[in-house]
Amino acid sequence: MKKFPVKAVAAAMTAVCGSAAFATANSGQITAPAATTKYAVESLISTTDITAPAVVYFVGVARTTAQDFTVLIKPTNGAKFDIASCTTAIPVAAPVGTGAGVATASLKRASEDECAYEVDVNTTAFSTPTFDANGVGVNGVTLTLTGLKYTSHKLATAGETAGVEMALFDLGETARIDTTANQTVDTAKSGQALRITAAADTGTKADVNDEMGPLFGFVTAGADVDATADASFIIHNNSLEGAGTWKKPDGTTAWNFGTDATNLKLTIAGNYGGMANNGIALSGFVVNPTAVTTSANTSVVFTVLPANLNTAPGNTTITATFTSARTASLGTSRVFGVQGLADVITGADEAVAGSDSWWTWGANAIQLSSPWFSTDPGAGVFTRFFFQNLGTDATYSAECQVESAAALNQLNNVSNSTAVTVATPAARVVKGTLYKGLTVLQAKDVCTFSSGTRGSVTFTINAPAGNVKGLFKYDLNGTATTTVPLERTYANGTF
User: Fold this and answer.
1) Distance of alpha carbon 221 from its chain centroid, rounded?
2) How do residues 284-324 score in pLDDT, each as one tens digit?
3) Helix (H) / strand (E) containing 466
4) Which residues contact 299 (CB under 8 A, 6 or more apart)?
5) pTM for the whole structure
6) Consecutive H or E run containing 85
């Protein structure tokens, strides 16, 4: 193998590496900005101009007056530069600490994807840089680029970033003179200034012992009493992550719902059956809004205006109050969610996430139901309800519904000629006790119909849900048996 003199090898390495050695543990680095500027997505679209803070690069190698070099800087994460800002941001060299060096920079080329600069080391060479114990440059020369501007970016989406990557090359841009990889820094990050916090509230219970009827009102606990139940959530006006964290495009002014939005439509979705007229209200605002729409007992929308909320940065704690009409059962389980849609002055409407299961109701009772049972009085026919109660004796009430004439007519229209007597729609509520262990009830003792023998039934039982199971059993002359498990009406459970 042919051998080269050590001096020749050294000369070849110098040519490849641009007349400088690579820095290893201590090397060139971006030292500013030290913190990423945070922008409110509510104030941006993808083409909103954003000016980056000054970018400072600590040169990690010494340079003689004969070693001019090139600085390349590019935008990251799909951002694009304002081409004119490449000229504005021509690097300025300055010694720091005990370092020394003088240089003049000029623009080599400019595009939306890259700014390139020639740095001419003038009368004073760049001294050998020194670093602290953490590898941070303390004595040497820095290059400061001020005024770089992004004309497009991804910052209109919360959680996205924009930044720059830098590298130093020889004048011919064929070899790096400092680091082995580009140095990067995020100068901008986006996030939502308008937020909703809806902590889970599971304290509301429908009261099986309500004086107006079983489960017609609420158990008195906390703010809940008789006809009303309350739950709270918080609207954050640029305050959740810290006072005024999210800025407008100038990078310094805090975004504010009071001046930078048109409205926030709050939707509270859930089961509004049994609610009194105007039975859902919000309080806690500077000025309380009123409901503007109700959709099929499943959602209510409130329009919150800038004057309704506390100014930024600030939190507004909102209390939602549900008022029962106390004329029907509220059931044993309901779930309400809260979400928002903000109309902001800059940018598209913004979904403001809350919680789909913010307010969950329970009850101090269980409901079991069957969509069908029979009171057939025929000889040898037994129609009975069987209950297993694993807890203490529990009172119950039963509400029965008969088949309507309209339903029977529909049945006859499909040529089903079974002998079913048209019954007058009616409902009857009976009460009793399910004793610990097994309780058997004759169907005719639970419900009697003015005509006909079949209907449906719902038992409301003053006991924890896990304590009671039940079924309806139809025995026909010892030759056939039909068993129908009673279902938990609101918990999607069948026993």
Assistant:
1) 29
2) 998 898 887 666 688 999 999 998 887 768 899 999 999 99
3) none
4) 267, 268, 269, 270
5) 0.76
6) helix 83-88
Using DSSP bridges, classify how beta strands 205-207 and 350-363 pair: parallel, antiparallel or unpaired: parallel
Helix (H, G, I), strand (E, B) or coil at 88: helix
The tokens for 298 are 């499943």
- The residue among 227, 245, 129 whose CA lies nearest residue 178 is 129
Backbone angles phi and psi of 441, in degrees to 5: -120, 130
Cα–Cα dist 401/381, whole Å: 21
463 to 138, 388, 389, 396: CA distances (angstroms): 73, 12, 9, 9
Torsion of CA 150, 151, 154, 158, to 10 degrees: 80
Residue with tokens 């079949």: 454
H or E element: which one contains 14? helix 6-16
Model pLDDT for residues 449-459, shown as the tens digit of each residue? 777 788 899 99
Degrees, nearest 5: CA angle 68-72-77? 165
189 vs 136, 156, 228, 255, CA distance in Å?
Answer: 24, 10, 44, 14
Contacts of 3 (CB under 8 A, 6+ apart): none
Contact yes or no for 350/344 (Cβ under 8 A): yes
> Among candidates 50, 89, 71, which has minimal Cα distance to 346?
50
